[in-house]
Amino acid sequence: MIINAAPDLRQQLIENPVLWPSEEPLRNSPVQAVLLTGGEVDNVAGLLTLRERHPFAIWATARVLTTLDANPIFDALDRGIVERHAITLGAPTEILGPEGSLGLRVTAFTVPGKVPLYLETKSATLAGETEDTIGLEIASGDTTFHYIPGCARVTPELRRRLEGSALVFFDGTVFTDDEMIVAGLGAKTGHRMGHMSMTGTDGSIAALNDLGIARKIYIHINNSNPVLLPNAPERDVLARSGWELAEDGMEIAL
Asked: Within a 13 Å sphere around the CA of 63, how many CA atoms are in the beta-carbon half?
């Protein structure tokens, strides 16, 4: 299962041999399912990379599936081959692919976020609806972890959900809320884009510090974020705070 289909999905497939096809049958792939946590371009554009008539399943909230349905370009994924399944918030869901169960149970839950950029002018509120931005609780056997690639703030409910988690992947878009403005790269703050910063009194480091999470890994890093620089002092801030930075090809065993 792949979580979100990023625009560079093709490159990700090329660089990870575990995702390469076998010799038989023709046009096969290990990718059995794609689970979407939102309808942003960063989440869905890579679906078009998977249009070569290989059967797989798309899983998303009804709201996100409606967004895909409204854009005929996604009909390049033949509905007779690529099934679309709606996930109900709060309900444990067994993820199925064309060959049956993938051995994963997913519980989706809403998190504060933002309506996709291309829908801002058509939405009554930038915050979007409850199904626009979700986090995932993923279980395989007795092992459970959490995946939250986009989050505007940590609510008391989210804190309760993540307390004591074995592993949390969390939104690491920006280091400071105004970093894009300060660097002259844009006019929006992280908050305006629907992402909380890593640092600051209302940042994710502070918000998740006392929850007893065994392992915390930042994902969804913006190219303005200085933690991407190998020798940046911001890396030390993460290390001292007990956070890791996701890397291409990272493998994690729980």
From this structure: 18
Per-residue pLDDT at 128: 72
Residue 210 burial (CB count, 10 A): 9
Contacts of residue 130, Cβ cutoff 8 Å, sequence gap at least 6? 63, 89, 110
Q: Contact at 8 Å (CB) between 95 and 104?
A: yes
Residues (pLDDT < 50) of the chain are: none
Alpha helix positions (H), the chain = 9-15, 41-44, 62-70, 156-162, 179-182, 204-207, 233-240
- Single pTM value for the model: 0.94
Q: What is the pLDDT of residue 74?
A: 96
CA–CA gap between residue 220 and residue 233 (Å, rounded) = 20
CA distances from 132 to 27, 50, 175, 193, 219 (A): 32, 23, 24, 14, 19
Describe the strand order of the beta sheet including 83-86 as a list of residue ranges.
Answer: 2-3, 33-35, 57-60, 83-86
pLDDT of residue 52: 84
Task: Report the C-alpha gap between 176 and 12 in whole angstroms.
Answer: 28
The tens digit of pLDDT for each residue in 67-92 reads 999 999 999 999 999 999 999 999 99
Query: What is the C-alpha separation between 19 and 125, in angstroms, rounded?
Result: 39
- Beta strand pairing status for 33-35 and 2-3? parallel
